């Protein structure tokens, strides 16, 4: 009888209490779930140039403001690796720099048409007195990789101008403060 | 919060092990996909409304602060010139632009533009570096010229 009691006590002592661990894990899970960005990605992972004087982004963006983000990024047409780019050098191969909207790559001509369509869909209701025509109310945010050719940005800007999109924004990263 | 208590008090013990396993997996998934993003800002750069679509180039103002950027693919190097002077680094370029800008301000000409004249193959970061200098010096007018030819490969 005496032995049995001892055994039961031993069993009780070695069972760990997992409740605090579950509590903490729930909190961690909640933190990471809320921190995760699951929205549709307008901005792809590219290394955009750094600029100290870039203004801080506004916490609350104007809801009426419609922004079209175009990413200029390096990708070969076949998806094959590019040895020049992979070695950290600057690639200027024909067709290696892609223009992308919402995850879809467009050729130069397709982008020109796309900009025209989007500009027409977002026309300002009032005619501009300077341009003497209705311009687009759309903002065009150009997110170009820091190694992208300047010619591509120029071309994209030119197409935007032709489409009547004149509000151009250039994305840049604010460098982290030096320690 | 989940409450504690003696095991004897709980008439219906629940096996929490599968739940803990799943929470662990979820935790690992979200931890791996979590990223601290850098602050991304944007420079406003409105296109002129009163200038033509294409057509002959604008003769431009007689006075300007022009930075010419060229790119040599073979050496993978950028050359920057302020007017006719080749500049070595950002600090020297900033000094040249600052001197000229202050000079124009003294002459009551604050609208003289900083013109960035880059070749088509120049890396974007080099152009943005000049934009950054212009913005930090609070130059009102920044203009992008259609690029000159890049330096020929040797």
The beta-strand count of chain B equals 6
Question: Structural class given helices, strands, pairing of chain B?
Answer: alpha/beta
**Overall tally of domains of chain A:** 2
- Mean of all residue-level pLDDT scores of chain B: 78
Q: Indicate the structural class of chain A.
A: alpha/beta
User: Could you state the oligomeric state of the chains shown?
Assistant: heterodimer
State Rg of chain A: 27 Å
Spell out the helices and strands of chain B N to C: HEEEEHEHE
- Helical content of chain B (DSSP H or I, runs of 4+): 25-40%
Arithmetic mean pLDDT of chain A: 81
Determine the N-to-C terminus distance of chain A.
69 Å
Percent of residues in β-strands of chain B: 15-25%
What keywords describe this structure?
heterodimer, A: 179 residues, alpha/beta, five-stranded mixed β-sheet, B: 154 residues, Nucleotidyltransferase, domain 5, 3 helices
Would you spell out the secondary-structure blueprint of this structure?
The complex is a heterodimer of chains A (179) and B (154).
Chain A: H1 2-14, H2 19-35, E1 67-74, H3 83-86, E2 97-101, E3 104-106, H4 108-121, E4 139-144, H5 150-163, E5 167-173
Parallel strand pairs in A: 1-4, 4-5
Antiparallel strand pairs in A: 1-2, 2-3
Helix pairs in contact in A: 4-5
Chain B: H1 17-33, E1 40-46, E2 65-72, E3 77-82, E4 85-87, H2 90-106, E5 114-118, H3 124-136, E6 142-145
Helix pairs in contact in B: 2-3
């Amino acid at each position: 009888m005496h032995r049995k009691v001892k055994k039961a006590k031993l069993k009780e002592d070695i069972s760990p209490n997992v409740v605090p661990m579950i509590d903490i894990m729930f909190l961690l899970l909640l933190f990471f779930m809320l921190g995760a960005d699951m929205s549709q990605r307008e901005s792809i992972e590219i290394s955009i140039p750094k600029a100290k004087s870039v203004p801080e982004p506004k916490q609350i963006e104007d809801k009426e403001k419609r922004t079209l983000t175009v990413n200029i990024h390096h990708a070969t047409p076949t998806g094959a690796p590019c040895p020049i780019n992979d070695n950290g050098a600057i690639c200027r191969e024909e067709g290696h720099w892609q223009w992308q909207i919402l995850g879809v790559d467009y050729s130069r001509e397709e982008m020109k048409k796309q900009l025209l369509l989007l500009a027409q869909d977002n026309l300002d209701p009032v005619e501009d007195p300077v341009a003497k025509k209705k311009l687009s109310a759309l903002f065009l945010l150009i997110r170009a990789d820091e190694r992208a050719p300047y010619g591509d940005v120029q071309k994209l800007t030119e197409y935007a101008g032709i489409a009547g999109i004149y509000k151009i924004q250039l994305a840049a990263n604010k460098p982290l403060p030096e320690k | 919060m989940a409450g504690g208590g003696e095991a004897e008090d709980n008439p219906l013990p629940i096996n929490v092990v599968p739940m803990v396993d799943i929470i662990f997996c979820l935790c690992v998934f979200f931890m791996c996909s979590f990223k601290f993003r850098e602050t991304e800002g944007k420079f406003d750069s409105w296109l002129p409304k009163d200038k033509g679509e294409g057509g002959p180039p604008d003769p431009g103002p007689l006075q300007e602060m022009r930075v010419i950027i060229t790119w040599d693919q073979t050496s993978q190097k950028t050359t920057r010139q302020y007017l006719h002077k080749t500049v070595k680094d950002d600090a020297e370029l900033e000094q040249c632009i600052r001197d000229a800008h202050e000079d124009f301000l003294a002459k009551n000409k604050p609208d003289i533009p900083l013109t960035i004249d880059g070749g088509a193959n120049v890396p974007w970061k080099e152009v943005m570096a000049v934009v950054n200098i212009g913005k930090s010096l609070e130059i009102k007018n920044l203009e992008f010229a259609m690029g000159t030819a890049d330096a020929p490969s040797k």
